[in-house]
User: Fold this.
Amino acid sequence: MPVTIGQSAGATLCVVEGRIAGVTELASELDLDPGVPHEHVLAAAFSRHREAVLGRLGGSFALLAWDDSTRTGLLAVDELGSRSLFFHDDGARLRFATEVRDLVELLPRQPGPDETAVVSWLVSGKLEPDQTVFAGVRRLPGGCHLRLAERHWSMHRHWRPQFTSPTRVTLEEAGEAVRRELGRSVVERCGGRAAGVFLSGGLDSTSVAATAAASGTTRLHAYSALFPADAMADESEFVEIAIEALGIPSHRQPTVAGGVLEASARHVREWRLPAASPNLFFQRPLLERARADGTEILLNGEGGDELFGCSPYLLADLLRRMRLRSLRIRSRELAGGDPQNARALRRNIGLSGAAPRWLHAGRSRLRRRPPLHWLTPPAAALAADNRAPWLALDGPRWWAWLADTLTAGRERMGVHDHFRRQLASVHLAGAHPLLDDLRLIETVLRLPPELAYDEDVDRPVLRQGMRGLVPEAIRTRSTKSRFNTLLVDALGGPDRQRLRDILEPRDAEIRAYVTDARLRDVVNGPVEGDHPYIWAQNAWRLASTELWLRSLSSESDPAVRSDEAVSA
Assistant:
């Protein structure tokens, strides 16, 4: 996305990337013409309010403000970190950019891998919100800003989730609140532009599509990947139901498993980072088709499982308050009615989650996680043990877990950065109302947590809110399609040789982190004891990381280097 620059008469500079809200109100307060560019309004607001202006802004943005008269300024991102800023300080100069690849180009030399971050990525597929896989390159976490002065900088937090007691509402009222906020979010993001929507046939994507169609404010077109050879993943029947009920045109793309590693190699070439998802191989063609059709913004329904799912740590709160009858009811609902699983949940989540914070902290200090046998000794020594970061938030355990999941948890998984890059690759704007709309997230966090529990279906609040909007066959569907088998079939079939070409060479960079025995098992796997999907997920992550590691030491195509290493 192009960056726009504006400068006020008072020599204050402002640069913004993304979508920013609250500017109209600031312009009115500052007696500025409503037609003045946003950057001029923000420059004037920074001159008057300094960094306190961040509390007046919303949206999805990265922002630079600099007052040349005082030689001070700030770098900031939105509360959820849905837009990113990356920075590097070499002791003499602070450099920053909105993408890692652009920042690396600014540095005198390419940084090597951050060993701790690479190990974390290999173990869990997650990084801390301020980490990147490049040594010395940091990411500005959501809700944070850098206070800039001429010769120094410091990081500060201007927003964090705050607990407020849930509003006592019925399921019907909660559903109506969610429906209202989702409608607002979709309309704000589309802004009358020609919109496309990723439509899988599931509840979340159909809810977003149905909300957009009902708004009447945008021309809508659906894009769906179909998997006729894979009954576990194919949702052709439900896509057809949604398309017919909503009355929108659609493009349906039959897809076969294969090309996963080529898509990951292309991501390394384009973004100089390992891919965050293996699903690029079937999503990229849909994005290209949407762009060719004239789509201006693409809606995505990802994130509903977490946003509208129940918080398991309500069990811990019920135990702490000795509400034992409610504990039994909720654990049974969470276990889908299975008594044995309900007892296990009371023990493993309720009892463990109810422990005081000091006990969790003491346990982490005294009992380090056992070394992972498949990591080399140096890599195992770097493996972090931070299994409950949500405990740092003040509030009931159910709220702390859910608030962390919906904010910093998404940053750890690289969700926002992944979707932004995926769309930028084909020059499309994106909208992710279930992921990056703070008002919708805060609405959910204020709902009574027990409303999210149901013995028969998940996401009961969303299902209630979509009554009359989403086709009943989808709204009341209790099963959910899984894409797990696609990755297993690809790496076990068409991509098997490519996997070997990447991981088998004796000079593979990944051998600094993963034992030879484990690499052998991955290449030949799944071996006995491996769950097929866990094997495939780990195999893909190892291969994707290897492609990136090799790219650091060569300007050539990382996928070609892997093939050359085998034949040499």
Remarks:
- Confidence is low (pLDDT under 50) at residues 1-9, 555-568.
